[in-house]
Amino acid sequence: MRLRKMAPLLALLSLAAAPLIAGSRSEAAFRKLQSLAGEWEGKDDHGMAVKTNFQVMASKTAVMETLSPSGMEEMVTLYSIDGDGIALVHYCPTNNQPRMRVVPQSDDVKELSFDYQGAGNLKSPSTGHQHHLVIHFVDENHITETWTWREDGKETPMVFHFTRKTK
Predict the structure, then answer these.
(1) Each residue of 129-156: pLDDT tens digit?
(2) Of 60, 97, 95, 100, which is closest to residue 82 (Cα–Cα)?
(3) How far apart are CA 47 and CA 41, in angstroms?
(4) CB under 8 Å, gap of 24 or more: what pairs does 14-19 form?
(5) For residue 20, what pLDDT is reported?
(6) Series of mean pLDDT values for 10-residue runs along the chain (167 residues)
(7) d(CA 119, CA 34)
(8) Residue 122 DSSP one-character state
(9) CB-based contacts of 159: which residues, under 8 Å, 6+ apart?
(10) Facing residues of 101 across strands?
(11) How does DSSP assign 106-152, residue by residue?
């Protein structure tokens, strides 16, 4: 009988704790992104050189990535906590700004899979733009990024394998 009386209270407490748990997941994932600070170099799936740089900024509330694939202009992506998730804005040489978001499912982040939310300066949904990003944390010195370009309904992945540059 006592348990029956406590059930509503336990349910209320679990609902109240859910945002805190989700918030801690986004904070843990954001700390993982912050841990990438520094210079990285690697290759794409075609063996071409690629480099990227992660910089923690704005009182540790944002991470800026500057990605430089071989033969392409550099791109800038800003990551920040957005409630229970992490949001990004990607500044592309094609002059559009896709927005993506992920809600981490665990405190032990092995991968972040960002989904398209919209874009600034995109003439139509069929116009070419970055539509998806997966960051796979191999270990503290190795990551893989898979960017998916979408144009006219066709998706083309670009895979970059990075190693932390040591001084």
Answers:
(1) 999 999 999 999 999 999 999 999 999 9
(2) 100
(3) 12
(4) 19/84
(5) 41
(6) 54 43 80 98 97 97 97 96 97 96 93 97 95 97 98 97 92
(7) 24
(8) -
(9) 44, 45, 144, 145, 146, 147
(10) 87, 115
(11) -SS-SEEEEEEEEEET-SSTTS-EEEEEEEEEEETTEEEEEEEEEET
Spatial contact of 130 and 98, defined as CB atoms under 8 Å apart: yes
What are the tokens at 135? 């960051």
60 φ, ψ (degrees, to nearest 5): 65, 25
Residue 111, Cβ neighbours under 10 Å: how many? Answer: 17
* Amino acid at residue number 151: E
Tokens of 71: 């033969």
pLDDT at residue number 84: 95
Residue owning tokens 């998806």: 132
Contact assessment for residue 155 and residue 148, using Cβ atoms and an 8 Å cutoff = yes
Q: Which residues contact 36 (CB under 8 A, 6 or more apart)?
A: 54, 63, 65, 143
Q: What is the pLDDT of residues 24-45, one digit of tens each?
A: 899 999 999 999 999 999 999 9
24: which residues sit within 8 A by CB, 6+ positions away?
107
- DSSP letter for 126, please: T
Which residue, among 74, 126, 76, 120, has the nearest Cα to 98 in the 3D structure? 120
